[in-house]
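TASK: fixed-backbone design
INPUT:
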């Protein structure tokens, strides 16, 4: 009986430094909304929920595998909700080994099959396919450039993008993968300019994307070259500055200003808890809210089965989301929205049904 009175401890793995550290405030604040909601009810497994914040940045001083393994070994955590890059997920999947449920929340490259690990974010097939087709049909760029950080998500996304370009009979003018934390992106902007590309698929993370967009704006390329990103969000827009955001598009399943029933309810709870000066809402942050809620639904409906399931098993999990309306059927994938930067806000211009 003593165990039932203890807190249900969730390790919230988010980057708190480095290129992706800009996302941390929104991620923490969104996850706190889910915890507050769950604790007004029965929590998880009849226990009040507690978050343990852990820095999962690639640049963190202590290897994340050591931290997480020690927490699991000491029974200090009951579950993991992770919003971090895929390179970290791949490292952790070899450590967690079904000892606690592991919910991975952001967009990712797809194909995660590790038992006990549930990746709930969008994949390139969902985000890129329809968005690239729409932009190609509307703006008719003769060729595309691809630039991203050098790890699995950009490389896999760009592999898919290249197959879409071939399908549309459009040329690839440029492809580059860069390390994290580069302060100057002018060289790559110049190379893209010389390539003659009319569109850029931008798969840089956090501060790296900001540095690129600022360099892009300084060079004036946005007057004739469009940009598409699947990871650009509202914090990034604010940091880039409106003058550097012309002809920039983003494809994702959530924007902070979506006029949907699900988002209206989420925003009311978010600002009700944190006040009007709360960190800006975005897809990356909302994903941690959804991850904590998904964990609660998973444990309610599949507490005896989760260890033997994975992301591709299409488990029917009932959970709250800022993206998916309660009226949608359980297990339905969120819509993908294509938006254009309008100042430092996104204006949604198209919605697609997910097929991934």
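OUTPUT:
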């Amino acid at each position: 009986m003593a165990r039932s009175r203890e807190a249900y401890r969730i390790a919230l793995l988010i980057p708190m430094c480095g290129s992706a550290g800009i996302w941390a405030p929104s991620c923490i604040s969104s996850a706190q909304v889910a915890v507050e909601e769950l604790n007004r009810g029965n929590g998880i497994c009849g226990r009040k929920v507690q978050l343990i914040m852990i820095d999962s940045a690639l640049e963190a001083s202590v290897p994340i595998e050591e931290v997480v393994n020690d927490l699991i070994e000491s029974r200090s955590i009951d579950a993991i909700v992770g919003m971090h890059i895929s390179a970290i997920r791949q490292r952790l999947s070899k450590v967690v080994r079904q000892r606690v449920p592991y919910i991975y929340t952001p967009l990712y490259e797809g194909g995660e099959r590790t038992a006990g690990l549930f990746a709930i974010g969008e994949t390139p097939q969902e985000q890129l396919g329809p968005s690239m087709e729409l932009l190609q049909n509307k703006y008719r760029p003769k060729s595309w450039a691809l630039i991203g950080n050098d790890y699995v998500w950009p490389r896999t996304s760009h592999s898919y993008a290249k197959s879409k370009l071939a399908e549309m009979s459009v040329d690839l003018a440029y492809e580059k993968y860069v390390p994290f934390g580069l302060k100057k992106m002018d060289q790559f902007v110049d190379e893209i300019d010389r390539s003659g590309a009319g569109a850029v698929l931008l798969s840089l993370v956090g501060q790296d994307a900001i540095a690129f967009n600022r360099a892009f704006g300084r060079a004036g390329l946005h007057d004739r070259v469009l940009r598409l990103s699947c990871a650009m969000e509202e914090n990034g827009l604010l940091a880039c500055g409106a003058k550097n955001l012309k002809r920039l598009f983003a494809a994702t399943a959530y924007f902070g200003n979506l006029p949907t029933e699900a988002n209206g309810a989420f925003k009311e709870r978010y600002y009700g808890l944190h006040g009007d000066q709360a960190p800006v809402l975005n897809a990356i942050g909302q994903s941690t809210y959804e991850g904590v809620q998904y964990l609660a639904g998973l444990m309610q409906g599949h507490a005896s089965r989760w260890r033997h399931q994975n992301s591709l098993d299409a488990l029917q999990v009932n959970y709250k989301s800022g993206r998916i309306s309660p009226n949608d059927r359980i297990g339905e994938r969120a819509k993908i929205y294509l938006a254009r930067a309008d100042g430092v806000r996104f204006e949604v211009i198209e919605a697609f049904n997910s097929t991934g």
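COMMENT: The chain has a mean pLDDT of 92.
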